[in-house]
Structures are given as structure tokens and as C-alpha cells.
Amino acid sequence: MLGKMMYQPLLISSLIEHAAKYHGDTAILSKEVDGQITTSDWLTVSNNSKRLANALKALGLNSSERIATLAWNNRRHLEAWYAISGSGMICHTINPRLFPEQLSYIINDADDQVLFFDITFLPLITTIKSSIKGIKHFICLGDRDDSVLEQLPETLFFDELLAQHTSDFDWPQFDETTASSLCYTSGTTGHPKGILYSHRSSVLHAMALCMPDVAALSAQDILLPVVPMFHVNAWGTPYAAALTGCSLILPGPNLDGDSLVSLIDDYQVTLALGVPTIWQSLLTAAKNKGSKLTSMTRTIVGGAACPPSVIKTFREDFDCDAIHGWGMTETSPLGTMNQIKAKHKTLSEAEMNKLRNSQGRPPYGVELRIIDTEQLDKDVAEDGLSQGNLQIRGHWIINDYFTENLDAITEDGWFDTGDIATIDTDGYMNICDRSKDLIKSGGEWISSVELENIAVEHPQIKMAAAIAATHSQWGERPVLIVVKEQDSAVDETQVLDFYKGRVANWQIPDKVIFVDNILLNGAGKMMKNNLRDEHGDVLLSL
Amino acid sequence: MLGKMMYQPLLISSLIEHAAKYHGDTAILSKEVDGQITTSDWLTVSNNSKRLANALKALGLNSSERIATLAWNNRRHLEAWYAISGSGMICHTINPRLFPEQLSYIINDADDQVLFFDITFLPLITTIKSSIKGIKHFICLGDRDDSVLEQLPETLFFDELLAQHTSDFDWPQFDETTASSLCYTSGTTGHPKGILYSHRSSVLHAMALCMPDVAALSAQDILLPVVPMFHVNAWGTPYAAALTGCSLILPGPNLDGDSLVSLIDDYQVTLALGVPTIWQSLLTAAKNKGSKLTSMTRTIVGGAACPPSVIKTFREDFDCDAIHGWGMTETSPLGTMNQIKAKHKTLSEAEMNKLRNSQGRPPYGVELRIIDTEQLDKDVAEDGLSQGNLQIRGHWIINDYFTENLDAITEDGWFDTGDIATIDTDGYMNICDRSKDLIKSGGEWISSVELENIAVEHPQIKMAAAIAATHSQWGERPVLIVVKEQDSAVDETQVLDFYKGRVANWQIPDKVIFVDNILLNGAGKMMKNNLRDEHGDVLLSL
After folding, report:
1. How far apart are CA A328 and CA B107, in angstroms?
2. Which residue of A has its CA nearest to B240?
């Protein structure tokens, strides 16, 4: 027997409709590519997205066609998002930090029909234009600009399109499992892989994101998503913001510490989200400027393991709750968030700091498990100590990659994250390493992440990667690849001495190799597979 | 094109699975019918609900069959809930305050197969037993008790059933729109009407309930649902509690002020939910006991318009945020919640008090509109002043009544609440009156609720109902039915004088009728239709 309640599909358009109707005058501030701040609100964003929906229709575009964006976090990008997904098309947000050949690859792989772009990226587009022949329309996110037309004569302009169309548009209603958006992994190996989100997965994810045990988003918040909209949809915040009707501060291209401190203080931001490296520069800038970031009650840190010192500084010097989260492009990204339980309120300072360094626990909607790395059908104990392959399933977790013939999940329906982790009895998860980066020395594991974290604590080391080098006796042994600080004369012995007392002696790297530079991928992660190709045999020749 | 994310149905069983896995040791405290407090936790509740699911299966019960409960808020009732809905059966919670003939009616109308009951209700069951022949099994929520068997020899006992079965049970997976639970309206006119919730509507409602702009429920909370589980599923809190893994304090049968103050103080309750009359006795008891209810940071008040004085006392004397909510059995019940927006933070005390008396705004997932009372296709302006028929739609709003051939919604898909309301430009809604209780005097409306609120401010008036009496010149005029405080000698002139300056002169009732008692329905609401039948012609005979 079926229930007798109304059925409405969970569509992204319902989010912007809610914001327009109940939070129409709530401010959306946007830093444009020219550095100006413009003020809008949810009603205007909604109306403009409907104008654009009419424009896309007039251009002959159809539902399920892929529409790409190459843009910063700004209001036009937000309006394009809602217009595209709301119309039933698929919003493909592209990471401009990918290499040009990767950009061409994913635009062609996605079969993108339209490319919206910020003027910043015009040089990039002219570079790859000859290899992306499928794009029918290039739309510049701004008003008419002749200098753009000189380089890309067929360009249409966002503001002109809006001016040509009315906001009289009814969002189509369709199956909630319809595809809404597409992101590609940055990929440290092989081609980037597409993840195709649905309306249902995006809306349920947005609801979960707002929960008090996740981002605790409310209409009292002034939200600054520093994480780009091309990184897993800014972790879903533009959807969650409309769902709650909070105020949005869109930071545009300038993500340096000084710019962010100004935005936070000028607009009384209550919550900002970003990656650890950005947060380190924010803290430095705030200290230099003498700002206490007083409006900011909490911040969510994800994208990479956050150094404990960053969490501590936020708490102690800025009275700001720094909350560790974990997720991936394949997980929309919300996997875990480090929020405490009632029983933790009485923890000592030291115990609380330890808890706070964990990646946190899953909210309702996702589940985790850890699996033996050798016997793939064997669960590993969730005791906070035993390590295993981290797997996840839930409403907003990938089932298949966009690209055909590319399996994403196990036979029994879990996504293997490629991470090695522990889970404790309360569900708090700790990432130990990427499984492919773990160093297996004589049957024991050494975490490359741990060795790297220690190395960068050394004042003369700028960047370090620990890789597994093949070893005739132990199978693998750690080798440390180091980029020194400028003018540093630190040598191998000094670096190795630095490990003494910090890790067990058998975990200390066998060798240090100094290099000028370590290549980063589009997401700012070290391309350790290249290093391993180059240096993986170094211990065999000793 | 469909998205490529995992699909899992939104089932109630997934809530208890989450709580058991990630919040297994979080306390569930339960005041039993004998006054003892027992301690359990989410893992135990989950295991017991699986034992009971096995027991129900062994009794030969099938999915979609209706299983009734006649019980207080306690742990066994909670376990029964999850066992019934989790198994795919329909949990029919019965309000024991209904008249016996109404109880028989709804048990037969629902075709209930099993009746779980607290021993408190044994006399009620023996009274109606001969008229509820469809019940195959009576299950007492307790351990074996021979005194029960003397009166109802076929009784099975909950604790014995659990002991006979293991917790080895996999929750079945099925369509998320499957019916999960059934509540009947208390009904001031006609037969009670059944509302049949689905798994999807219940889970989405629970997610919405947890939002910071609704109940802001988290794993840090210790939740006391004073509102009974037979009143719209305790407003959905037992589902929301499992979803967040918060601690639950189930208060059992004793809902007097003293008992509640003790529970709040002894178990450090952070959030309690209940109706205004209960809250008034709670505040009196707290003052008498000298309790400051320090652990309670907020309370949600619903079920009836809350006197402003109650909200003010909570805030000023107990530093507790009293949050006004509105909903109905047909709306699961979450319709609106009075939570502020960022722009309200700078309101003056007086402006804030005014805002706080509104029933609040709808969360994402429901929409409101107000419709002209004469021209039913005409929207009324949402200006905070214009009144109209309040209509609602959304994921957890009724589409049809359980009983066949009983339409619930308008042609264009909205549920008419039967309330007259205003909505302001920010979406904040104020209930003015039930549409059938409004008094239409010479084309102008007079709110019966407003007249009643003023009457009960008079120290010598215990209860008052304002009804529309037929009038030869004005169509209708207000007449006030009054129950005096004991030994009071207040007379008609004094009562009418009390209105001067409090309402416009033309709104003052034409007549006061003193009675010994006003009949209440099962939900504690005055049965004004009876009064109108009796006194509706009183002005014609003048």
C-alpha cells in the first residue's frame, strides 16, 4: 500500500524557487573579475536564471545537453548554474587549473555544447579552441566587450542575453534522478573521469550539508564559499545556500589571504569553507592585518588533511570553530564532518584536540566501512587503530562514471575511495594515506602523508613528497623528495636527523633527493606517480 | 539522461540503522508506566526492533497491514514503531483521548490487525473490545502480567516476544512511497479522518525537522518530546532523533509540570517540544521549584497559538528560546517554524517580540499561499495584513485521506488548512482563526481566537469560546461562552467592559453566556461546533 502524501520530484529548481519566494531580499554579493563588488539578492538571481533559461531555449539547446562553465565564484556563474540544471540541462563545471590538453579532453569527452567563461580564461580558450570543435556557443560572463570579440568573434555576452529575454519561465518538472551536473576528477594518473550528479543526489546532499552536525547552515548565516564552484560544485554550498536562504559572498578570482580577510570583515561572514593551504594564508594575513575575524563563528576545512596547527590557531587565536571534513568528487563531496556528540562535551582539551584532528563521522545518508587490503571480502575492525581500504555508499555517492565502461563500485555496491583509513567505535574516521602511496616495508606499512607532514615542519623545507622505492630486501622503503626553501643549505643528514624521535627508526626514509620543483595537478596535489616513475628504482642502484 | 549516482530508497529503517551504527551507545531514557526510569541506547532499540520484526513475521503479519499502538512515549513504543514501519507494515498510532466510540471507529476503519498497548489503557480496551473484532493480537508493552491476562486472556507480552526472537533481521527494501504510518485527526466535526504517511514523506520531514532553521537537532542534543507519539508521530521527533543520533528522554504518562521539570533537570534536556497548555504548567512548576531549566537552550511550542506571555517568560526568566511552530496532522506536521533571518539580528526588543509571536516561515520542502475566501482562484497579497484561506503543498503534505472518496486537495494541488491567515513579505505566517470559526459581522471579520485570548486574560475567567451567532441585521455577531473560575461572581457587564480598549467597539461580543463546562475533543480543543449548535440562535430571540 502506498502512502497518500503529495509527490514532488527533488529538483534543483525547487531550491532557487524557495530562495526567491522566502528569501528574495537576502543579499548575494559578488566580487567580479574586475575587482568590483556587485550586490544582488535571491530574487534577482532567480529572475536572471529564468531569463537565461529562456535564452538557452532560444539558442536551440535541449534537455540533457552538457553546458560547460569555466568561471570563478561569482553571481553570473551562480545564475548560469540554476538556469542550466533548472532547465534540465547538465551543468559541467570545468577546473581551469587542469592542463590545456586535459581541458580539451574533458570538453570533448563531455560533448559540451556551450561554454560559459569568465574573461580571465579567454587566453586559455583561444589556446584550446582548435581542439574543442563541439562547442556551438561561447558565452562570456559579462557585458559586451569588443576586446573579447577581437579574439573570439563568435562570443555571445551573458548580460546581452539576459536583456533579450524575460523572466517569464516555468521550470520544467521531470524525474528527480535526471542528471543535473558533471564534474571531472583532477586525476593524478590517467584521464580525468566524469562524475554525473542527479537532481535527487544534489538536493539530498544539500539537505545533509545544512544539518547542525554538518555545516549548520541557516538563514542567519553569511556564507563565503572560498572553495571554487568548479571543485565538486563548491562542495554543494550554492545549493545549500538557496535551500536555507542564507546570504552568499562570492569571492571571485582573488583568493589570497588579504582579499579574504577583507571580505570576511567587510561583510561579516559567519562561515567560510576552503582548503588548508588557503586557510594558512588567511591566518597569516589576518595576523598581519590585526583582524580577529570576529564575525566568523566557524569554518569548514576540507580537500586535504588539515595540519593540526591550523585548527588550533583558528580556535585559540580567532575563537573560530575549525571543522574538519572529508569527501571526494565521487562523493558530492560530503563523506564525513568532524562534529562532536553530547558525550564529548566533557573531554579534556588534549582529548578534544585529538578528536578534532579526525576527519569526522558520516551524517545520515552515507555509510562507511573499511576492508582488508589483501582479503577484499573481509571487514576490518572499527577500533580506531586497524587500517583498511575506505569504502562508502549512500544517496550522493557515485554508482558509475560518466564515461562508459568504467566501473566505480564493488560487486556489493560500495565505492572504494582509494584511501587507507581507520574508523573508531563512534564512527570517527582518520585517513592514513592514499592506498597507492602507502609504503610497504617488510610487511609493515609506512604512511607517506605522515613522513611528508614531518618534513614540512622543518623550517628549511618548502615541499616534500615521500614515495615508495623498490628495495631488494624489504620490498619497498621510503625515499623523500624535497624542495628546499630559497637559499637553504640543508643537507640529507640534517633532514634524516629531523625524523629521529618523531617516527620509529625503521620508518625513517632511506634517502633524501633534493629537486627544484614538484609538479602539482589541477587540484594542487603533488603528482607523486611521476616522482615514483623517476625515482622508484633509486635504492636498487645503491 | 539520468545521473549516475547510487539510488537507495528513503526508508524509515535507514534511520534506525544509522543510529545503531554511529550512535549505538547514545542514551534513550524512558519513564515507564510504573514511574520507573529505564536506560537504553540506540543499539538496543535497534536490536529490539529487529527482534520484534521477527516476532511480527512469526505471527503471520504481512507488509502493508495496519498495526495499532495505544501507548505513551516510552522505549517499547519506540521499538514497536521501528519494527512495524521498518518491516513494511503501517504503524497506526491511536490517540487514547478520543471518545470510546471514536476509538472503535478508527480501529475498524483502519482495519487494524494488532493492538500494542500500555497497561494504562487496558480498561479502555476492555470497554471497546466487543466493537473491534478485527484485532487478531493484543500485545501489552511490558513483561508478563497475570492481572492483564485476567481481563484480556489472549494478551501477548512485548518482553516475552522479544525473548523468543533474535535480532538477526535484515530490513526489507521497497518503494520509498510505501505507506509507513497512519494518524487520524481528532476531528471537531464528523468522523476522524486518516492520514497515511509514506517512508519518503517521513524521512524528508525528519531531515527538514533537524535543520538549523527548524529544530536545529544535533548529536549534542538531549531531546524531550512531551508531545505524544500519538499526536502526529510526536511531530516526527523519534525519526529525527535517530537521524541525528541525539539522546532521547521519553516522558511516559506523567506530563504534569513537576514531572517535566524533574526530567529536564535530572537529565539535562537541551530541547523539549510541547503544546502551550503543558508549557504553562511547566513554567509554573519550575518557578515553584526554583528551577531555572538551565540545560534547556530552546523549546518548540506548537499545536495551538502560544500566548505571548509564555514565549516571553521562557526568554526572560529562563534564558530559553521559545520557538513557535505551526502544523497539522495533514502536514506531518511541519508547516512553519519561527526562526529569524540574519537581517532580524538588529531588531529592537519590541519588534523582535512581535516577530516571535508569528507562527513562522516554511522551511524548504513546503510552500504556503493564501487565497481569497470568496473568489477561490484569487491569491491574497502577502503583505502581513491581508487575510485569506491558508493553503500548503510540499513533500510531506497530504494528497488524499486514507479513507476512500475523501478529497484532500484543491484542483491545482494544494491542501486547504481550514485556517485564515496572513503572510508577510518575509514569509512569516500568522494564523487569524479557523475559517469555520471566523465571525462575519456586516461584511467585516472578527477573529474568535482574538476574543478568546482577551477573555482568558481576565483573572476570573477559566475558559472562553467566541462563536458566531446568527443576527438579523449583521448576518453574524460574536457571542462569548464563558466558564468562570471557581467562586467567581464576574457578570456579563464586567466581562464586556473588559473588552473596551482592547478591541474596536464593534468587535465586542453582543452577549456573554456562562456555562459550567466546555467540551474538549481528543486533542484538547474546544468543540465549538457543539456550542454553535446550542447557542447559535441566541441573538434571534432577543
Report:
1. 50
2. A364
- Residue A138 CA, chain-centre distance (Å), reads 26
This prediction has a pTM of 0.92
Residues of A taking part in catalysis: 185, 330, 440, 445
Contact by Cβ (8 Å): A222, A270: yes
| DSSP notation for A293-311 | -TT--EEEE-SSPPPHHHH
Counted across chains A and B, CB pairs separated by less than 8 A come out at 225
Range name among A25-34, A419-428, A520-529, B51-60 with the lowest pLDDT average = A520-529
- Give the pLDDT confidence of A237-287 residue by residue, as tens digits: 999 999 999 999 999 999 999 999 999 999 999 999 999 888 988 999 999
Query: Residue A363 corresponds to which amino acid?
Result: P
A207 with B212: Cβ contact below 8 A: no
The predicted pLDDT at position B187 comes to 63
**Is B445 marked active-site?**
yes
- Is residue B440 classed as helix, strand or coil in its secondary structure? strand
- Residues near A338 by Cβ (< 8 Å), separated by ≥ 6? A323, A324, A325, A355, A356, A358, A359, A360, A361, A428
For residue B188, the model assigns a pLDDT of 59
- 8 A C-beta contact, residue B198 and residue B177: yes
For chain B, count helices (H), then strands (E): 17, 24
Q: Is the pLDDT of residue A541 over 80?
A: no
Whether residue A196 and residue B4 make contact (CB cut-off 8 A), yes or no, is yes
Alpha carbon distance B142, B33 (integer Å): 9
Is B2's CB within 8 Å of A178's CB? yes
Q: Which residues 163-182 of chain B have a CB within 8 Å of chain A?
A: 175, 177-180
A467 Cβ under 8 Å from any chain B Cβ: no
ipTM: 0.92
For an interface test with B, the pick among A5, A339, A395 (most B C-beta atoms closer than 10 Å) comes out as: A5
Nearest CA in chain B to A247: B342
* Contact residues on chain A for B22, CB-CB shorter than 8 A: 361-362, 426-427
Contact A89, A245 (CB under 8 A): no
Measured between beta carbons, which residues in chain A are less than 8 angstroms from residue B367? 18, 21
What angle do the packed helices A75-86 and A12-22 form, to 10 degrees?
Answer: 130
Contact predicate B274/B301, CB 8 Å: yes
Residue B542 has pLDDT above 60, yes or no: no
pLDDT tens by residue, B7-32: 999 999 999 999 999 999 999 999 99
What does the pLDDT average to over B101-113? 95
A33 close to A74: Cβ distance less than 8 angstroms: yes
At A416 the three-state DSSP class reads: strand
Active site residue B492: no
Whether residue B396 has pLDDT greater than 90: yes
Any B CB within 8 A of A437 CB: no
Interval A181-209 mean pLDDT: 90
C-alpha cell at B275: 503544546
For chain B, give the mean pLDDT.
Answer: 94
Q: What is the DSSP string of B64-127?
A: T-EEEEE--SSHHHHHHHHHHHHTT-EEEE--TTS-HHHHHHHHHHHT-SEEEE-GGGHHHHHH
Rounded-to-integer distance, Cα B23 and Cα B17, Å: 10
Dist CA B116 CA B75 (whole Å): 13
Sign of CA dihedral A281, A284, A285, A291: positive
CB A436 within 8 A of CB A504: no
